[in-house]
Amino acid sequence: MKTFLDWSAYDTYGIGDAYSGIPATGGNYAKAVAVCMHSRDCQNTGKGVMCPSYRITGDRAHSTEARVAAFKAALNDGSDAAAFADPRLDEAMDLCVSCKACKKECPSAVDMTLIKTEYLAQRHEIKGVPLRTRLFGGVPEWTGRHRRLLRLAILLRNRVPTMARLAERFLGITARRPIPEPAPVAYVAPPAAPHLAERGDVILFVDTFCHHFEPEVAEAAREVLTFAGYRVRIAKPDPADAEPDRPLCCGRTYLTTGMVEKARSEGRRVLAAFEGEIAAGTPIIGLEPSCLLSLRDELYSLGLGPKIGALGKQLYLFEEFLAREHQNRGLRLKLKALPGAKAVLHGHCHQKAFGVMKATRKVLSFIPGFSYDIVETSCCGMAGSFGLEAEHYDASMQMAEIALLPAMRAAPDDAPLIANGFSCRHQIEHGSGRKARHIALLIRDALDRD
């Protein structure tokens, strides 16, 4: 069976394990599906993230276990070519938001996010890639090549109700929420200092969303790192890159929409850009959880070679890097207290799935007297493009209303709201009318420059 992702990591799975039936077709991909041992942790409504779709429906059909059963049936009943066109898979995967929680919270570590990527890629091969998928998945290209046109189109759509209704009718993009608008000016970093800083060099990976939509987050992170004693260089494509002026991209939007070859192309750009940094061991710091952690985790599935492992060891989220430097290298940021009531913190699904919330809490503890509550919630429901899809808008809002939006609305007016995910911040603002902020902005505001 031809697969679009590299599933060789599962080659020895099932040897000596009590698997409950590896499908007859599908090779190593089928083994990845069959790791489910029916613990039913995915049918949990208590603490944790898994499984957002089960939480809002209470229907086992929308749990990870049921999705596994659907894949097993399709791979057993159909030929390789036809299995992924099975309507049972469409039904089972409809409400999956690729939150990555099952890989962390399932005892068997079912990676439904990657399983879904392969399924979408296979379905695109059979049916073609829908226009809406190309639009959502292609955000890095649209913003990199046609930024002005994209910004104008979004501004018109958000401000002219007729345009929003037409976009819903012909593209399936819901008219009930605004589309995030690119900033008037994309991020432009000042040149790095010509001399080596006290604490050495770091690379700041400015993702598509920070670069084009919220450049103030990237600038805040650069200011904090510079204040802490690092020389900050902004990640740039390799000079031999076919598009040297288009910012680097993790490929996440392509992976979640099943456009694997596009994701692989972005992965190659990243590897080429960082080849020298891999050899030098330079820390590479990211800001958007899903982007940075996709580089650290899902790049392995694209079959790009052994350098992926070395790169992964140098990748840190902003708060991970600060926490590590504090613990291992004596970093002590000079910070001052911030005004306002107790803050409210929402963790992105990937922060939770990869254990980054510990670092987030550690860095917030650097601010004198700062206190906060963590919202115990599952996925925010926005999940990239999921909350913009007309047929999924209601489900998106139901996920947010479980705990996230009530907590944000209940917070005092002067309480800082913290959310590191771009989609999370959009969902919070849309559903509560309140603006949440990235932790880099908070730490920047707390810098004691006197």
TrEMBL record:
Lineage at the top is: Bacteria, Pseudomonadati, Pseudomonadota, Alphaproteobacteria, Hyphomicrobiales
List, alphabetically, the SUPFAM superfamilies matched: alpha-helical ferredoxin
Q: Which UniProt keywords apply?
A: 4Fe-4S, Iron, Iron-sulfur, Metal-binding, Repeat
Q: Where is the 4Fe-4S ferredoxin-type domain?
A: 85-115
Q: Which Pfam families match?
A: CCG (PF02754), Fer4_8 (PF13183)
Origin species = Xanthobacter flavus
In terms of superkingdom, the source organism counts as: Bacteria
Q: Which InterPro entries is this protein grouped with?
A: 4Fe4S_Fe-S-bd, 4Fe4S_Fe_S_CS, Cys_rich_dom
Write down what this protein is called. 4Fe-4S ferredoxin-type domain-containing protein
